[in-house]
User: Which sequence fits this backbone?
């Protein structure tokens, strides 16, 4: 190396920004040169200062809370028991599935973790059963699904349509007329709302198949809904139009959220498919 | 003599703990949690800016790690894996929150330049750091707190190696300009 390495080179070395060969060259020089060693020390102290400044201590009880929470989940128990023979794991899996046939407690959101890491979150008042084999039978209310990328496929069966997903994140909501008018007993299913946050899902409803991708929300209506709608608006919008919402009157707070999803498609895509898509962001 | 530790010290230890944990040693899993939690929780806090949300995201991240370990797949790099999961979870969470509140995200916008200060003042350094654009803050967090190498940062952020280096450089440069122009 001719003369001293530049300040940048020393900084790069300390930050691990250089290849091993480059590092060796600079390191050799710095070891032998008091001047550069002093500069290096300065950068090194800057680095430790940075670590100190940017580190945030985790709340003291967080670790134990996480451990407790993980212990409470099927996958958590399996994690601690990792290494159990496959047959035993299979028995365990069957046992987990058996516990998933349920009617959730009213008023509480209920979260279930399937054997492949997929999560099913049932909103309060939702009614569903999970017979296993990646099948979810949703009869009433709203459920969210979060599937890891390498999960098995999941099928959500509802009275209005069937949703097939693989490695996706989405919500499925059944709307009924009674719900809209506040009469919980007399329900007529009107619409199936599927909102996709990540990945792709396919919805089979009303005799046709619709593919939805991240950021899209689709409302599938029954014929009843179209007949019932006084201003005819839903009949036009509802049937098969992507990104539109069932604009009903009673100010359901979900409405605002879902309407925006379409516009956010690009963002979602970027962050989800980040391996490929984030490249362009490097220039800010 | 100046010791320049370009090598990341934690990787071998991470891996050893992960393997022991996968082999059924719960204590190793807990130790790994202890090692990773501060950096991951800090990352969540940085993105979400709410301690309740950050704790939830950190918890979720670790739950997913447990599920991963349970699935029998051995992770190549548990540090980048958890960082990636945490980052994506937090972005999702924040998006969800923004949809609910209809609040614009100011995270990507650089704050106006402030008065120059001396680097030695930790609080001021923190304050200036907070003024940086989010991507700069994240890349600095990855480098200085989670101790990720540029290659690993690239993996987490979905960038090419070179871009991660450039980003880290620019982030440091931007911070230096703020604290000592």
Assistant:
């Amino acid at each position: 190396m001719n003369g001293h390495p530049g300040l940048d080179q020393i900084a790069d070395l300390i930050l691990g920004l250089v290849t091993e060969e480059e590092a060796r060259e600079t390191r050799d020089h710095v070891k032998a040169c008091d001047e550069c060693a002093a500069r290096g020390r300065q950068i090194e102290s800057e680095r430790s200062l940075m670590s100190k400044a940017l580190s945030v201590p985790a709340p003291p009880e967080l670790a134990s809370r996480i451990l407790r929470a993980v212990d409470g989940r099927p996958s958590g128990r399996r994690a601690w028991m990792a290494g159990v023979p496959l047959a035993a794991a299979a028995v365990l899996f069957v046992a987990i599935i058996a516990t998933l046939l349920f009617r959730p407690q009213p008023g509480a959101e209920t979260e279930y973790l399937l054997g492949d890491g997929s999560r099913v979150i049932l909103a309060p008042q939702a009614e569903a059963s999970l017979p296993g084999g990646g099948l979810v039978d949703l009869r009433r209310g709203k459920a969210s699904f979060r599937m890891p990328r390498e999960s098995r496929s999941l099928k959500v069966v509802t009275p209005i349509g069937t949703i097939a997903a693989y490695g996706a994140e989405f919500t499925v909501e059944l709307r009924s007329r009674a719900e809209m008018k506040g009469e919980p007993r007399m329900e007529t299913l009107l619409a199936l709302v599927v909102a996709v946050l990540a990945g792709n899902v396919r919805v089979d409803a009303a005799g046709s198949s619709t593919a939805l991708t991240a950021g899209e929300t689709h409302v599938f209506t029954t014929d009843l809904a179209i007949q019932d709608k006084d201003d005819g608006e839903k009949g036009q919008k509802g049937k098969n139009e992507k990104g539109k919402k069932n604009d009903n009157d009673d100010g359901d707070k979900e409405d605002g959220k879902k309407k925006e999803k379409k516009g956010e498609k690009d963002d979602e895509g970027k962050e989800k498919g980040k391996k490929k898509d984030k490249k362009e962001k490097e220039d800010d | 003599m100046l010791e320049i530790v370009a090598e990341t010290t934690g990787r071998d230890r991470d891996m050893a703990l992960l393997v022991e944990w996968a082999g059924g040693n719960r204590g190793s899993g807990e130790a790994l949690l202890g090692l990773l939690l501060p950096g991951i929780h800090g990352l969540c806090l940085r993105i979400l800016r709410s301690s309740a949300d950050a704790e939830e995201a950190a918890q979720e991240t670790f739950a997913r790690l447990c599920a991963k370990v349970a699935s029998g797949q051995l992770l190549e790099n548990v540090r980048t894996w958890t960082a990636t999961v945490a980052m994506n979870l937090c972005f999702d969470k924040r998006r969800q929150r923004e949809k609910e509140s209809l609040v614009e995200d100011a995270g990507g916008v650089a704050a106006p330049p402030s008065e120059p200060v001396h680097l030695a003042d930790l609080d001021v350094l923190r304050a200036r750091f907070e003024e940086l654009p989010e991507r700069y803050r994240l890349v600095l967090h990855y480098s200085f707190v989670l101790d990720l190498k540029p290659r690993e940062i690239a993996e987490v952020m979905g960038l090419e190696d070179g871009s991660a280096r450039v980003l880290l450089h620019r982030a440091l440069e931007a911070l230096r300009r703020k604290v000592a122009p």
About this structure: Residues 74-78, 80-106, 179-186, 224-284 of chain A have pLDDT under 50 and may be disordered.
